[in-house]
Prior knowledge:
The protein has 2 domains: 6-85 and 146-207, Phosphoglycerate mutase-like (Rossmann fold); 87-133, no CATH class. 47% of the residues lie in helices and 15% in strands. The chain has 9 helices and 6 strands. The chain has helices at residues 24-39, 53-68, 87-93, 95-101, 103-114, 118-133, 148-163, 178-189, 194-203, and strands at residues 2-8, 46-49, 76-78, 171-176, 209-215, 218-226. The chain has a 6-stranded mixed β-sheet. Helix 6 packs antiparallel against helix 9 (194-203) and helix 7 (148-163) packs across helix 8. The chain is globular, with a radius of gyration of 18 Å. The model has no long low-confidence stretch (mean pLDDT 95).
Amino acid sequence: MSKLFLIRHAQASFLSADYDNLSNHGHQQSLDLGEYFVKKGITIDKAYVGPLKRQIQTYNRVKEVYDKHGLFFPAAIQLEELREYDGMDIMGTVQTDLAKHHPVFKQWYVEMQAKPNHKTKMKMVVTFLNLWATNTLGFDLPAGAQTFAGFRAIAERGLEKIMEGNEKGKSIAAFSSGGCIAAMLGKVIGVENPEKTMGFNLVMRNTAINEVLFSGNRTSLMTFNGLPHLSEEMITTM
Length: 238
């Protein structure tokens, strides 16, 4: 069998003008992950990474540690299917409808305009993502907008691409985001419920390690949301 390490990106720049960049904290989390892998003698035969900056930066930092120690770490194969969902962009697009159908969003938008803060933003994000995933928004999405079912199908294709041809004794690392990894893990353990699948995403920490054993189409989840490389003060969710 082969082992797949599904790794969530490190902390990004939440509430900044460009979220899709690692924070200073995130860069250190990634280096800590690399040092942990090196200390444990983990050899990676093949690496995959999504197209987002925060995903690529996390991979680069881990590889940097291996390079520093004179150890091999493979060049990453960029896989479009490892891209995160469009949920945050969709939330911004439909904010008028959200405020109309869910008055609490109107209150939160007012709070964020007065003083942007992490707590209110997280309430908005978590509430919207659950409504979006379960298709209970109460209004139609704009034409062509991504649905959670559509996103999940893309992520599952990504998992299939990673496993195909790599099922014989390989050690593989894939750097992606929480939603994408959650969708893949849902496939691995046979969870169809979208709310439960989204639940995996909402509790996944930055640089969390999720280990999957696979051979052919057979898959088994070994670990979920592991953070053996981080001290308590280094643990973050966004």
